[in-house]
Write a sequence for this structure.
């Protein structure tokens, strides 16, 4: 059974609390995914299902080699890819299971913060009118 999160009365109090969501929400990962070319590259690697070289990814995505190399580095630093250097070639791989698990955990953490009855009464945030309708 999932634990029930007790919501603080004010946003200031909420900012001082730590929840599982805070640990799982990784701004660098989201920032890396927000750039369309990087999202396209990640999609290509996920669909390919095996490690690919920068050259292969550049051919697949019709993006300049040097830009692909930079994007792959950003995705790897954000934890979305693994890389392995063999000789002069760097091979990048997207772990679909790990990525899915991370986003599933993030979704669960968001759900933990969701009020059970759809509305929090008397929390002082002003999200509800007196009849309890969310604004």
């Amino acid at each position: 059974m999932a634990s029930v999160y007790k919501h603080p009365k004010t946003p200031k109090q909420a900012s001082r609390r730590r929840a599982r969501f805070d640990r799982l929400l990784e701004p660098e990962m989201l920032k890396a995914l927000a750039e369309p070319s990087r999202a396209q590259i990640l999609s290509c690697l996920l669909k390919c299902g095996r490690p690919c070289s920068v050259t292969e990814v550049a051919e697949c995505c019709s993006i300049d080699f040097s830009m692909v190399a930079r994007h792959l580095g950003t995705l790897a630093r954000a934890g979305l890819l693994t890389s392995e250097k063999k000789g002069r070639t760097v091979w990048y791989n997207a772990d679909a299971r790990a990525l899915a698990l991370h986003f599933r955990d993030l979704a669960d953490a968001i759900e933990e913060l969701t009020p059970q009855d759809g509305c929090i009464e008397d929390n002082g945030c002003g999200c509800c009118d007196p009849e309890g309708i969310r604004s």
Summary: Residues 129-135 have pLDDT under 50 and may be disordered. The helical segments are 11-16, 20-24, 27-34, 36-48, 54-61, 65-77, 96-112. The first strand starts at residue 52 and ends at 53.
